[in-house]
Batch of 2 targets.
Target 1
Amino acid sequence: MAKIHIPTPLRQYAGKQPVVDVSGKTVGEALSDLVARHSELRRHLYTEDGKLRSFVNVYLNDEDVRYMEKEATPITENDNISIVPSIAGGRSPIIMRSHSRMSPSGACCCC
Amino acid sequence: MLRIDRKNYNALRQHGEETYPHECCGVLLGRMDGEDRIVTSIARAGNTRTDSPQNRYNIDPKDLIRIQREGRARGEDILGFYHSHPDHPAHWSKTDLAEAHWFSCSYVITSVENGNARLTNSFVLRGNDEPDKSFEAEEIVVPKSESVDGVGIRLATRDDFAALMPVVNAAYEVETFIIGPRVNAEAVEEMARKGDFLVAEDANGRVVASVYVETRTEPAYFGVLAVDPAWQRKNLGRRMIEAAEDYARSKNRKTMKLTVVNLRTELPPFYRKFGYAETGTEEFRNPRPIKDGAQLHLIVMSKAL
């Protein structure tokens, strides 16, 4: 069976295990198996409309599945899937400027 | 509480100095001890935000997987992450909170002003889910003077003066350009009026190192660093310097100054390793007689605490 490595913050929802054996032929099936066995994990991994949360990165061995076939990426018995929440930050708040606002004379007001 | 040894604490602060004016980032590894996080190693990571590295950081998950795997082989877990804020307070920002997803992990932030690491603070990500997450300030404990070889460092009392004098004089015998012992009872008394001595004692209570520190005004000053020749090359000098710096910080001093005699050419490189830079010179004003022909002056070195 393939293995899914659970990051520290989510282990409490996976029976405190760091690794869970799962069955499935694709990454998507493996993740479904995981949340079937540990239902508390579902809301931490998926949004309400069933999509993987944007800050949840899924790696098949050492490759990000976003650059492969995402959840359709096929897996084999010896594969290691890792769930890695993003680690990011920075020292100032995100400032969103709307470039669609134009002053009457047509010049962009934020530059 | 986050416990981290001095070597790793200094290393994560120094990382921020090296990447200044960009943010640095890295991983804290170790183990949990009840509610406390014990850091046993740190791993530097690359900042993938090459588009905005002066105010953003991102650790490549691929780096993290490798770091995690290597940590696991040493029996270590990921306890948290560290990054720096160039010219900005050591406090989490809205971006830091928005981008934090490792619940129960520590996020350590160091402010780096003009290339010098200033404060380091830690925050634990609390909550169970995105809507209710928050950062809670966490105490960082860096053990003072780890008892390696059973040596402990403490503030000296008057009873220690007689014991520290021979240690100082033996260590300064190498200054053959000055005639006579480095200190006598009168010199020690005069120094004790303006500052304090810290001493290191071995498991038998014997004084094996000492350093003099002035902390009452800015800048703080340390001098007369001496390690018993039998105890040299064991990093005791480093520990005395760190103890002097910690003591000065505890008195709210922001800068530490030291002076070395120009003829001790091996000393400026030694102190540079501790982050000191040459900032000027001073006249050598000392009552002790100088060997004929010796031209002495003092080199001043400083460091932000």
Target 2
Amino acid sequence: MKKIIFAIAFLIFFSFLMFSAINMRSFGDPVISEMDDYFIENAQKETGSNNVVTSIVFDYRGFDTLGEATVLFTAVVGIVALFRGVK
Amino acid sequence: MNEMSKIVRTVANFVYGFIIIFGFYIIVHGHLTPGGGFQGGAVAASAFALILVSYGTINSQKFLKKDILSLFESFGLTLFILLAFSGLGITFFYNFLANSGNWFGNTAVIGINPGDMNTGGLIPLMNIAVGLEVLSALGVIVLIMAKAAEFTKKKENS
């Protein structure tokens, strides 16, 4: 009984996935592209760095990187606290 | 983890420095080539894992000190936050060094060009800070988990 329910759910989800994958628009052709155009036009001029991805990650969206670094730091703090008795 | 054979240890000695140098190359060239602080830190931390696997948990404690790595980790995160605060005259995370003519302040050539190390403003400095943090954070995780595995094994045997 359980297996049949799982099979039906799998089939429904899989068909939805295939449907949306087939109907997806072509790669590199977004509907809304104001931000992308702005970054491609101005990133090199404003930040002076050749790598536009790095200029977004460390300059335009610095808060995101701050959060990522803090998440890593918190993970290390948690692991050190978990194994604090280990000598 | 126990010590592995002489062959593995010799190759690890040979390769260790190259992995560290490649990681730092990716960190320092973060504003010119693909990669950056996170990726380069992960590459450099894999060298620590190599030393740990090839030399065993107890012997590798001579080369890798957990406390020093922990210090570097806190230093990297603090440096990143301080660099973010240093642009506070205008906004948080303002890149005041870019195109200023000072340190890392050359203007980049627009378009496709081979790249100049001395551009990018705060971005290379932030890459170095984040790279230092990721490198030592992953190193601390690997070291402390290996130590804990050794501890558990000893406790189960006794």
